[in-house]
Design brief:
mainly alpha; globular; 66% helix
Length: 96
Amino acid sequence: MRSRCGSTADCAKMSSRKSCVTLDLLVAGDRTPPSHGPEVCALHTAALTSWCLLLSIAPPIAVTAFLRSHLRRLPELLESCDVELRITTGEALALL
């Protein structure tokens, strides 16, 4: 069965780019959530939402690979000072 986002490689590339925007910018190097202004938090929330949308149509093998590399970082976002980001993170964890 073919994925709706093209090949598995295409899904992996897109999810990798989304993860860079979302996970790498949201959690500081010491694993503490940085404090950003409302505009930046809104951008991060939108990126996490699009990342989830992409994973919802990705083939299972791409989702599994992504989970292996990024699932451990998502719970850290639940400590964000932004309520919308915490809600979106909870939804992402429920989806996965």
